[in-house]
Amino acid sequence: MWNGLRPSSQKVLSLVAELKTLQKNNETLEKDKEHLRINLLSAEEEVKMLFEENKVLDEANKRLLKQYHKQRSGSGGKHTDNASTKSNKRKSSSKMMSGSPIQGKIDFSDQESARQPLSPLRCNSPNSRLHKKQ
Question: Rounded CA gap, 7 and 13, in Å?
């Protein structure tokens, strides 16, 4: 049937088929753009939440450091400044943090603060193939 058409009709039909393909690709691109917008908004919200949590943790850390320094200086001068205590600074601070008053105050298992998965992007969409070829 295709061979029975005039060359101009064949060209018109080819152009119509190509136009339909481009329209489908455009629809896919629009969906991908919407997924990206959603992902960006989710990521921005997560950054804000993490920033706020970080501020709370920084304040708690400052309080704990002050408390630690008060306890250390209020120990009656019994602390020593020899090489072994200086080399164990990191170990002693980690021990101090394990019994810290902040421990258990932040519930990371809370469903509301849990990270929501980002919307999927189709890696095998026709658009992604077009971009790979260019």
Answer: 10
Nearest to 75 by CA among 90, 63, 92: 92
Tokens linked to 58: 């920084």
Q: Of 105, 24, 30, whose CA–CA distance to 64 is shortest?
A: 105
Per-residue 3-state assignment (H helix, E strand, C coil) for the chain: CCCCCCHHHHHHHHHHHHHHHHHHHHHHHHHHHHHHHHHHHHHHHHHHHHHHHHHHHHHHHHHHHHHHHHHHHCCCCCCCCCHHHHHCHHHHHHHHHHCCCCCCCCCCCCCCCCCCCCCCCCCCCHHHHHHHHC
Q: Two tokens at 18? A: 């190509």
* CA gap 8, 90 in Å, rounded: 81
More confident residue, 114 or 56: 56
Q: What is the pLDDT of residues 37-80, one digit of tens each?
A: 999 999 999 999 999 999 999 999 999 999 999 998 887 555 45
